[in-house]
Design goal:
The protein has one domain: Vaccinia Virus protein VP39 (Rossmann fold, 3-Layer(aba) Sandwich). It has a seven-stranded mixed beta sheet, with helices on both faces. It has about 280 residues and is α/β, with parallel strands linked by helices. It is globular. The structure holds S-adenosylmethionine. S-adenosylmethionine binds next to helix 3.
Amino acid sequence: MAFAECSRGRGVSDMGRDAAYDGAFDTVIGSQWKLISDEQRAAAASGGRRGRLEPEAPDAYAVHDTRRYQRGHADVFREVFNEAYKDSGHAPPVKGERLLVVDVGAGAATVAVALQEALGNARQRRIEYVAFDPNLMMRTLGERILDYVAKGFRSAKYVPTLDDLDPNDGHRVLFAFSYVAHQDAVTTDHLEQWASVIEEAVDAADRAVELIYTTAANLSGDKFPELCAMLKRAGITPKTKPVRVKVQRRYPSMDGSDGRVGWDWQDRNWQVQAEHWVLRS
Ligand SMILES: C[S@@+](CC[C@H](N)C(=O)[O-])C[C@H]1O[C@@H](n2cnc3c(N)ncnc32)[C@H](O)[C@@H]1O
């Protein structure tokens, strides 16, 4: 096979790693996007929103945000996941492990997209992916995206509430929070619920529970220091480590001659804040 030509700004996309997501994008997101009027698109893109999504927001907002930002958020999570375990001999899931990934504020299953791209087939078969998002349109999109990206997982589903989790089943557990930390719709009550679900997982596990969160750097209002303080009060002291990555921005361009998605790579990188937490009681 001939070598592909190097060109500046093109990434792994050219090597087919994200072909599964491209298929989902064309079919799932593209079909919903076509149903949205210009007025709805303009409202969804309004500068004041900055990706903030309420549970009852118009469906157009969820479709817009998924179309515009999911690709980048998955790129970031994939690189953070790879970097977090780069020098460790126990990058999950190792042979014999089942990894329960709890994706909170999952949107349209962004962390599943990232893991499908980060992991080979054997490791994907050890993943039990559970997503939760309070926005119904996000969940509807995500359930369809899972048909493309989670085919190789041991299991993948959305749960209507975090009360439905069962971490007490011999799993290694990873809580994932991708671009949820600055959501206005996340209240102290939600953080308390997350802390209690995490606490339950820590109590049930015979090894450390882990958490990875990614968000936009240089924004005020990150809720994760409060979550960390709540866990400390519950007797769990998170060991936290910042994870630094450089990830080039890309956005969808729909002007390909066949109408299928293409990606416009930007000169700028995402400004990422990310941490890896290890949690024991
Ligand atoms: C910026 S989007 C990120 C979605 C996805 N994790 C990603 O990275 O593409 C923020 C998500 O947080 C969800 N969200 C808002 N408030 C939430 C809450 N209290 N609990 C869980 N998710 C929430 C929204 O519905 C939305 O899907």
